[in-house]
Design brief:
alpha/beta; 10 helices; TIM Barrel; about 210 residues
Length: about 210
């Protein structure tokens, strides 16, 4: 998969909904009902971060949910890429980008949303052919004003800002011409998952789905 093909696939995924849930799953029993609740609420693209021991098993279970497009977040190494692909991930997300990681995703035909926080990082990825990127950590890097400023000289790059994005500021990002969607964890609070409140999570997803782009 070429970077151009990867960016086209990433753009399609980002266009599925205004919010991509960023999920940290500690209990494997939560995986399938969580995916079903979020998809039912209108958020089909799901990023499962590889931060827990059950993350890969969770991806495998969630990939079976009809209508879901499940990806692996926190990809750091070629080994992460291989494991995510084997588990059934349809896309990957990384906090930054290295040549080894980009090579691995391209060789594995895994569309990647590579992370960038500065104009130089954005330019490096653009030079390689990535026109869809993750702006991370969004709030710590200056928030929507910073992303707007990056977009002025680099309008050919589109972003999914993640990191500190919440219901209170999501619209600030979504109002930018260079933002396709946002990534956020607020649609799947740990307390609601622990309580098995899948109906409540579906309602949070429905509200997020209504955010205007």
């Amino acid at each position: 998969m070429t970077p151009t093909e990867a960016s086209a696939a990433a753009r399609d995924i980002c266009n599925l909904a205004p919010v991509v849930p960023v999920l940290v799953i500690d209990d494997l029993a939560h995986a399938r009902p969580l995916a079903e609740a979020l998809v039912a609420g209108g958020l089909p693209a799901l990023e499962v971060t590889l931060r827990t021991t059950v993350a890969l098993k969770a991806i495998r279970q969630m990939a079976e949910v009809e209508g879901g497009v499940v990806g692996a977040g926190t990809l750091l190494t070629p080994e992460d890429v291989a494991a995510a692909k084997e588990a059934g991930a349809l896309f990957g997300v990384s906090p930054g980008a290295t040549a080894r990681l980009l090579d691995a995703c391209e060789e594995a035909d895994l569309p990647l949303l590579p992370g960038a926080a500065t104009a130089t990082e954005v330019m490096d990825l653009l030079e390689r052919g990535y026109t869809v990127q993750k702006f991370f950590p969004a709030e710590a890097s200056g928030g929507a004003p910073a992303l707007k400023s990056i977009g002025a000289p680099l309008p050919q790059v589109s972003f999914c800002p993640t990191g500190g994005v919440s219901p209170s500021n999501a619209q600030d990002y979504l109002g930018l011409s260079n933002t396709l969607c946002v990534g956020g964890s607020w649609v799947a609070p740990k307390a609601m998952m622990d309580a098995g409140d899948w109906t409540g999570i579906t309602e949070l997803a429905r509200k997020a789905k209504q955010l205007a782009r």
